[in-house]
Amino acid sequence: MLFTDPEIGIKKTVDPTAGALGGNRLPKPPPGRYAGSRVFSWLLRLDAERAFTVSLLDKLQRRLGRFAIPHLTLAILSLQVPVYVISLFQPQVLEPIRLVPSLVLQGEFWRLFTFVAVPPEVNIILAYLHFNMFYFMGTILEAQWGTFRYNVFMLVGYVATVAASFLAPELPASNAFLLLSVLLAFAYRYPEFVVNLYFLFPMRVKWIAMLAWGVFAWMMYVGDWNLRLSIGASVLNFFLFFGREILHRMRWSARQMELRRRELVQQNQPRHQCRICGKTEQSHPRMIFRYCSKCAGNPCYCEEHIYDHEHIEEVSV
Q1: 193 near 8, Cβ under 8 Å?
Q2: Interior CA angle at 174 toward 169 and 176, to 5°?
Q3: Helix, strand, or coil here: 289?
Q4: What is residue 290's three-state secondary structure?
Q5: I need a surface site. Which of 159, 166, 197, 317 has the fewest CB within 10 A?
Q6: Sign of the C-alpha dihedral, residues 32, 36, 38, 40?
Q7: Strand order from edge to edge, sheet including 201-204
Q8: How far from chain centre, in Å, is Cα 168?
Q9: Quick count: other Cβ atoms within 10 Å of Cβ 136?
Q10: In this structure, are residues 292 and 311 in contact, taking their beta carbons and an 8 Å threshold?
């Protein structure tokens, strides 16, 4: 698996104004254009909400940060890769570590933790692509967010997946959707990143994520409730981390479109219109328009009526 992106930079620090959890910062309006407007006030309120979320995570990090697991992605892969190699020769090794809630209720509590080590049950090539992409994207997210925030992201998905599995206790739960949430988060942060699939086919990661969202939507539509709950639980962490920012971006885009629509409407409106015949510079580009200073309100007249009209007198009350 080859990755190329000259613009990406891995940093350990998180800009408090760059999104609640390291997300892309929304574009600021040009100076003076929206100063004092409702849009500018909305942007200030958005930054305040983001600062509140960051401060909340910072408080949790100061209290619980020492419990965070560094290099969490590598730790997960150090479990999955050996299990995958063993499962190639002894497939039955996966059965004791799968998460089956009904067996957990019978006393097999280790399944709550060991199901994270269950690797994807695919061929060697696809498994290599999975391990490579998961390691690369997970380590970048951890470097960007910090160890504690990345741990929180994975922990939320883990807890939601385990909780959802107990709604269908007889069926085994999968960690595949949980690991895919890392792809979704990475694609949201770095949508233009290029991945060379099978070393031959360059593809921007945002298209892979859109394909994954499409597959999720289709599986939610045709799948049973166990599958729907598994998908919903696995993407819960994504929406908790990026949902507010996505909502604000949608509102921002809607307001930008409304402002642009008003600008276009104003541009399409004529600047000069004869008070008598209604001619404008758009309907008659060669026509000369003048304003009568002797009329109340200085109305506009075309060259045919500037000298041939009755002056408007201001009515005094």
Answers
A1: yes
A2: 160
A3: strand
A4: strand
A5: 317
A6: positive
A7: 2-4, 194-197, 201-204
A8: 30
A9: 17
A10: yes
Query: Tokens 């419990």 label which residue?
Result: 67
Domain spans in the chain, listed from the N-terminal domain onward = 2-260, 272-317
C-alpha dihedral, 67 to 159 to 87 to 3, nearest 10°: -70
* DSSP per position, 193-237: -EEEETTTEEEEHHHHHHHHHHHHHHHHHHS-HHHHHHHHHHTHH
CA atoms within 13 A of residue 108's CA, in its CB half-sphere: 14
State both tokens at 238. 């994504």
Backbone angles phi, psi at 302, to 5 degrees: -80, 175
Write down the CATH number for the domain with range 2-260. Answer: 1.20.1540.10
CB 271 within 8 A of CB 263: no
Phi, psi of 173, deg, nearest 5: -95, 150
Q: Are strands 300-302 and 289-291 parallel, antiparallel or unpaired?
A: antiparallel
Report CA torsion sign: 109, 235, 189, 146: negative
β partners of residue 203: 195
Tokens of 195: 């991945």
Q: Residue 31 is encoded by which pair of tokens?
A: 């100076």
Say if pTM beats, i.e. exceeds, 0.70.
no
Q: Which residues contact 202 (CB under 8 A, 6 or more apart)?
A: 4, 194, 195, 196
Instruction: Look at residue 280 and give its three-state secondary structure.
Output: strand
Burial of 65 per CB tally in 10 Å (0-12, 13-18, 19+): middle
Other beta carbons less than 10 A from residue 169's beta carbon: 14
Helix, strand or coil, per DSSP, at residue 287? coil
Tokens of 231: 């998908």
